[in-house]
Amino acid sequence: GAARRLLSASLQSGSLTSNEEAQARGVLADLADKLVFSRKIESNDPFSIDYTIRSGDTLSGIVSKMGLQVDWRFIQRINEIQTPASIRVGQNLKLVTGPFHAVINKETYRADVYLGDGDDRIFVRSFRVGLGEYNSTPVGLFKVRKHSKLINPPWRNPRTREFFGADDPKNPIGERWIGLEGIDEHTKDLTGLGVHGTIEPESIGTDSSMGCVRMGEGDVSQ
Q1: 57 CB neighbour count, 10 Å cutoff
Q2: How many beta carbons lie within 10 A of that of residue 218, not counting itself?
Q3: 3-state secondary structure 40-102
Q4: Is residue 124 a contact partner of residue 162, using CB atoms and an 8 Å limit?
Q5: How many Cα atoms occupy the beta-carbon half-sphere of 54 within 13 Å?
Q6: Is-cis flag, bond preceding 99, omega within 30?
Q7: Which residues have a Cβ under 8 Å from the Cβ of 6 and sit 6 or more positions away?
Q8: For strand 122-132 and strand 213-215, is the pairing parallel, antiparallel, or unpaired?
Q9: Half-sphere exposure (Cβ direction) of 108: Cα atoms closer than 13 Å
Q10: pLDDT tens-digit map of 88-102
């Protein structure tokens, strides 16, 4: 745990070379596979809780009761639960407290995801992203809009008004939408922005969207 915190702090300090940063991200991503994205719990991990399911529990109810700052579907995913209704009394779950943050670097087309707040946050993983054409992805602070993490959503093109149904294979935003709302002076009046999938994987790493952040389907799902 201490080594993970130290390496994350070094990564965020700006004191590493680009090669050292890449190595640090790789090591920390490997650790996250075990400590964040699996059922494994380390006794000294400040972001994980061992929870025993009680009568009447639901995954969404557990998240609310325990004050977790994650989506209940993340708990379902890391515990390899096939359907939410399949949990049983006495079953042990790994809970991750959250919160998660993403920092998007427009120059490198990279989203760095962190777990925790402030100076104690831990680097989790990097994802390649696509950004807005003509530098249209705005710079500033955003949060995930409540109830906006959508699976297989319909979408209407805001420019052409063309509508794509949820199951339309031509739907440009793919299978996921995560709505964003601005929370600083530069972004508070912006609407319609989000993180989404794409049916054009070759557009990742380029300026191709209408301002949104696009990700590969497997990445945005995670």
Answers
A1: 17
A2: 10
A3: CCCCCCCCEEEEECCCCCCHHHHHHHCCCCCCHHHHHHHCCCCCHHHCCCCCEEEEECCCEEE
A4: no
A5: 6
A6: yes
A7: none
A8: antiparallel
A9: 11
A10: 999 999 999 999 999
**What is the full DSSP assignment across the chain?**
-HHHHHHHHHHHHT-S-HHHHHHHHHHHHHHHHHHTSSS---TT-TTEEEEE--TT--HHHHHHHTT--S-HHHHHHHTT-SSGGG--TT-EEEEE---EEEEEETTTTEEEEEESSGGG-EEEEEEEEEEEGGG-SPPS-EEEEEEEEEES--EE-TTT--EE-TT-TT-TTTTEEEEEEE-STTTTT--S-EEE--S-GGGTTSEEESS-EEE-HHHHH-
Tokens, residue 139: 């710079």
Identity of residue 98: G
Task: Give the phi and the psi of residue 176 in degrees, each rounded to 5.
Answer: -140, 145
In tens, the pLDDT along 6-43 reads 999 999 898 999 999 999 999 999 999 999 999 999 88
Token duo for residue 165: 């149904």
Half-sphere exposure of 144 (CA within 13 A, CB side): 17
CA distances from 193 to 15, 132, 196 (A): 33, 10, 9
Quote the tokens at residue 193.
């922005």
**Residue 130: strand pairing partners:** 214
- Cα-to-chain-centroid distance, residue 59: 19
Q: Is the pTM of this model over 0.85?
A: yes
Position 66, amino acid: M
